[in-house]
Amino acid sequence: MSKNELVILDCWASPFCMRVKIALAEKGLDYEERAEDLFGGKSDLLLTSNPIYKKVPVFLHDGKPLCESSVIVSYIDETWPAPALLPSTPYERSQARFWADYIDKKNSMQLFDSTSAIWKASGDDAVESAKKEFVEVLKVLEGALGEKEYFAGDAFGYVDILAIPITSWFLASEKFGNFKVEAECPKLSAWIKRCMEKETVAKVIPDPEKIYEFVVNLRKMFGIA
Amino acid sequence: MEEVKLLGWWVSPFSRRVELALKLKGVGYEYIEQDLAHKSQLLLEYNPVHKKVPVLVHNGKTMAESLVILEYIDETWPNNPILPRNPYDKAMARFWAQFIEEKEEERGKLVEEASQCFITLEGELKGNKFFGGEEIGMVDIAANFIGYWLGVVQEVSGMELVTRDKFPVLCKWMDEFVEHSVVKETLPPRDELHAEFEARLGAPSWKY
Question: Using CA atoms, how far apart are residues A180 and A216, in angstroms rounded to an integer?
Answer without folding.
Answer: 18
